[in-house]
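Hi D.,

Good news: the full-assembly prediction came through. Inputs first.
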Amino acid sequence: MSDLENNHIVRKNGKAVELKPLKTYEEKEKYELHGVEESAESFKLQRTITVVNGVGIIVGNIIGSGIFVSPKGVLENTGSAGMALIVWALCGIFSTIGALCYAELGTTILESGGDYAYILKIFGSLLAFLRLWIAVLIIYPTNQAIIALTFANYITFPFFETCLSPDVAVRLLAAVCIVILTWVNCKSVKWATTVQDLFTAAKLLALVVIIIAGFVEIFKGNATSLEVGRSMDAVGGKTADFSQIASAAYQGFFAYAGWNYLNFVTEEMINPYKNLPRAILISMPIVTIIYLLANIAYFAAMNPEELLASNAVAVTLGNRLLGVMAWVIPISVALSTFGGVNGSLLVSSRIFFVGARHGHMPESLALINLNNYTPVPALLVTSALSLLMLVTSDMYALINYVGFANWVWYGVAIAGQVYWRFKYPDLKRPIKLNILLPIFFCLVCIFILVLSFKSSPIECLTGTGITLSGIPVYFLFVYWEKRHPDWLHKIKSDVTKFIQKVCYALPQDTHED
Amino acid sequence: MGSPEKPIDVEMGDMNDETKQLNPDVKTDSELKEEDKEERFTGLKKEELMEIANQPHWVRARWALFIIFWIIWVAMLAGAIFIVVTAPKCKPEPTPQWYQDVVVYEAKVNEFAQNFKGMEDHLDYVSKSLFSKAVMVAGAGKESDPAAVTNNDDAGFESLVKTANDKEMKVMIDIPVDTLSTMHDNFAQSATAACASDASGMYCNFFVWKANGSTSNTDDYAEWVYNPDRMANYKVSKDSPNRAFLNYESPKAWEFVKMLVKSWFDRKVDGIQIRDVGHVQNIEPNKLVKDIWEKFYTNETSNEALFVYSSSPNPELNPVMLDVNNTNTGKSPMILSDHLSSHANLEAAGKMMRDAIEGWRNSTRQIGANLLTPLGGSLVETRFSNTSMGAALNLLSISIPGVPVIRSGDEVGASSPVLTWEEASDPDSAPVNSSNVVLNTVTAATVRKVEGIQAMQSLRYDTRNEDTKFSFIDTENNNVIAFHRKWDTKPAVLVVSNLSPSAQTVNVVSSSGLMDEKKPAQKAKVVVSSSAAFGDGDPVDLDKVNLPSGTTLILGA
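Then the structure:
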């Protein structure tokens, strides 16, 4: 064990690294238990996220409700069970490559905020602001709202099995879910990561139940669509050509979305040099294998045609194979989505926080509560935006417009990684991938973008428009900030002071003690 | 996937010093600017905050906010629970008889797979590839007697029934009740019966006899044949001259038919299809059906099916009279009609089909059954010059209210009803003479109809209650039939079909059709289509749907 493992890395805005030894094992344990550092430390978000928490964040965010509800996007296009499984595996491997690129970026640029932080560092303020703009304004709030709605739908499922749950109750329960999880996140990072671990474990358990049920069926010999030689039979008369496999992969990549989430909280990880790549390397194979096995289980339980026709695949499987235990499935989906909302709140608040720290968001969002060491204002704002999305009816249209947008920024961030390889070849990189991997992943991003624009050009153009609408905002509120009139400065200062008093919060220390 | 140049588990011990100088020149302009900003934090310093924020009124204010937060949270939770508890429960799903909510596959044993063993081997095709959970078996010839139908392969039939039941499938048998083979012992008995002292219970009047010489007037479906033994004429079916018409005036004949039905139920079939009821002699067809129904089906514990087929047109069969209990989930005979295929490829096909469906629905609440090709008739593939008609008809017959009865061969677009199977093929693989387009259309629709999958439960069953909506859409185009189906809160579907001889464009935007936020929807997506020109999920403008001749689309929001 190297000396460093007993050390506590402290880092200031990516400018310097200082190691503070945690004197004794007991002390270290105490710090892990309470999530609060010694008072001698500088005031900032604490390093509490272990490698297990990291796995919980990645796995818990990738596995949302999709695998339970409609894993059919891939099958629809591939046309055969066997090809669908191949595409699922390929998407898993490609996403792992993306995650590894982020592992390199995350250990080279040791700052929270994920692609925002990397783009800021590599390409500067304007591009980074646009990334922030689309992420915090639309992507994360809608994402949280949609997962929360799925949660509410499934938690009420036992009461309304054969018809739709009442809309108002669903929205209220979604709000209840977002609000309680916001409180947990405000209260303690440790609590939030524990919730994340528990619910990730619950969803993995549910998937294991599904997988076992499916494999029992296979060993009984009932899974005809999986037999070798049959598995490539076309479903619905479609033999997949290249463009359809591409569309299938496009759907598959969305199922793996979330592999970058741990990079949003790098600054809060214990020993990120080791634990960030470790968590990524543990999580991605878990997710890929679980996805493959779950899909095999679905094919074992039903014909590909039935899978395509079902709008709640796991529920159909449960009703068929689990008998009296069928209720487990909707409850598991509810638990899974509850954990998903938690994870999303955890990371999205950090983007606000990091953005505010760099002056791209109101400075009050960069405040940390003095007692709990949590970014309370940022959490409250991301939560409030999600609640706002819950009451708008156009939420699904919004997510359609910007669904592809993340891929632009993954591509930009990883292109930046390649660019820095040439600009700063001697930069210390704890992880250094073969240069071909980031280049390959950039091509994957371009491929996904081309497909997005091809399949829904109007939505994508609208989404681009929404992103570009950030440019005037940037110049008005960020670039010309110094030229703001005094009265505006005064208002901003008063707002900050007010929020400080309400949230009992301070910005993090700017200098090492 | 390549491996990192350096092992991931890098030696970290030396990280300390080097990262401190993590490329000083990496500091970009934006970072320099930021440093500025950080110095200019406009809020309270730590000491100020400690002092002001710990003043009692700020402490109280934070407590108040904290309490309000929880009050709102509890209120939202309580509100949600209240709504869930008080919301009207889902309407109970109707529990139809098994034969009112099923897809039936009708096959002659010799055409489908030569014998019962072959049929048994390919049951998975019917069940898993077609999602049909009931097989209607017909004998090789037009037979009704068990010995003749099974061709003395009683063991094979028994095994078929058992295997099917193990697969949770039903087996039904098709028996003609209008005629009996002249090879049957009863015919010789009747031909040689001493009729002078005929009493009821004797064979003399078992068939329809007529003194020689008076054979001039006869029905168009029948003819007279001279029998030298009796020196009289007997009435036979024009299609099959070796079958003589039974005379239902004779108690012996009646008894024989009842015994026939019983002998099939003794063989554990789950249902019987009687035909050709329209041509039964000297009895009112409805009375025959009713008598059989009352004799065999009114027992509390029985749940067997009685399907009734009569060659089209069948004005004799009156659903109202057969409507035994005026509900749509109670036990009732199932009357088959083939009005769809008889109107296809004609001008104003849509209007005629609509009239036929409306006629049925207006006269009875009972569930009916739809069939494209009757046993012995030529398959849809060969009936129309336009080969896309077959898939379109199949899809429409599965999506209209009622139980679809698929004639073997129609579902694969075969031109001959004799199916050919690849040797050693898998149990659920399709016959070799399949048209994939037709088979896939049928499969895509039957999976939704039978499995009751939530997305399309509105297709599954026609309750005729307030919670079912079935409405025709006025397209002002007699060639096209369009209707909207919705069940309670399930997603609705819109079915549009052009079975006329020419291409049509229709506007199906309607307040009785698909809705989008309380307004008639302008766009929809293809759920199932009978034509390769429309892929699943393709968007369709509802104000101008272009339908080539022989196209059926199921559209959803």
